[in-house]
Amino acid sequence: MRVGIDSYCYHRQFGELYPGLERDPGTRIDIWQFLAHAHALGVDGVSLETCYLPDDLDVARLRAALEAVGLDAVWAWGHPQGLASGARPEAVDDLIGHIGLAAAAGARVMRICAGGRRSRPADWATHRGALLPLLARLVGPAETHGVVLAIENHIDLLAAELVELIETIGSPWLGVCFDTANNLRMGEDPLAVARLLAPHARATHVKNIVRRSGAPGTMAEWPSTALDAGAIDIPAVLAILRGAGYGGLLALEIDYLDPACGEDAEPAIRRSLAFLRGALSA
């Protein structure tokens, strides 16, 4: 397993704010500055949120920039709603287009979002029935381009539901992007979720969260914190991943940062990366 960082850690600097919770930092970065910063942080790889890539992206330049500093890449498509839990079949064409871009950039894994907290249907039968036909359309293009697709547990799917989707499709080109924290936000036990999802993991978001008094069902209820400070036993999760044979990128992600950490995420990012390296070496 290798240490990485998701560009979402810098979502405010890319211009995305959680309304009513975050303030504009007053500075902006682009993908090139992010790559330079990731290299300076000493990580092995990056997860690149496609929503922060420019419309006129020079993919050849991006691949060259990654190779120049030895960074592996996961292509991360679909923030925030992706396929909207099956309600946006028109998004499949965009997703398939990004499979080609991922391959051109040298990424062999692509995180995809099947939906989000707000798109989750009330019943699983409806949810499952809407998603399966869309996911089945992706397998052929993924195989053609040699890019494994990894569905994130994006506060839209319970762990057993995600496993059911993966096993029903039954393709080596479709797996899981395992977010270590999101299912705690849905009331599931993090280690039980890890045991279910780790065998299918092809990418990760390594994240820790802490319970606060914010409105239930919002980011304020379970904000992010440094990896060594939240409710999730990250070393135990890593042991489960290792035991399942996962050898991919451990991409640190910080979304809405706990106000107790201050507004600047950089100290929590650096502390988390140091903790992650220590946990791996242990």
Structure description:
The chain contains nine helices and ten strands. It is an alpha/beta fold. The protein has a single domain, classed as Divalent-metal-dependent TIM barrel enzymes (TIM Barrel), CATH 3.20.20. Helix 2 links the parallel strand 2 (45-49) and strand 3 (72-77). Helix 4 packs parallel to helix 6 (159-169) and helix 7 runs parallel beside helix 8 (234-243). The longest helix is centred in the C-terminal third of the chain and has 16 residues, at 266-281. The relative contact order is 0.14. The model has no long low-confidence stretch (mean pLDDT 98).
What is CATH's topology name? TIM Barrel
Distance between the termini: 13 Å
Shape: globular
Corresponding CATH architecture = Alpha-Beta Barrel
Task: Enumerate how many helices there are, as a single number.
Answer: 9
β content, as a range? 15-25%
Order of neighbouring strands in the sheet with most strands: 1-2-3-4-5-6-7-10
The total domain count is 1
Report the CATH superfamily: Divalent-metal-dependent TIM barrel enzymes
Task: Specify the biggest β-sheet.
Answer: 8 strands, parallel, barrel
Write down the overall mean pLDDT: 98
Radius of gyration: 17 Å
Order of helices and strands: EHEHEHEHHEHEHEEEHEH
Unreliable residue stretches? none
Given helix and strand content, the structural type is alpha/beta
Give the helix level as a range of percent: 25-40%
CATH class: Alpha Beta
Number of strands: 10
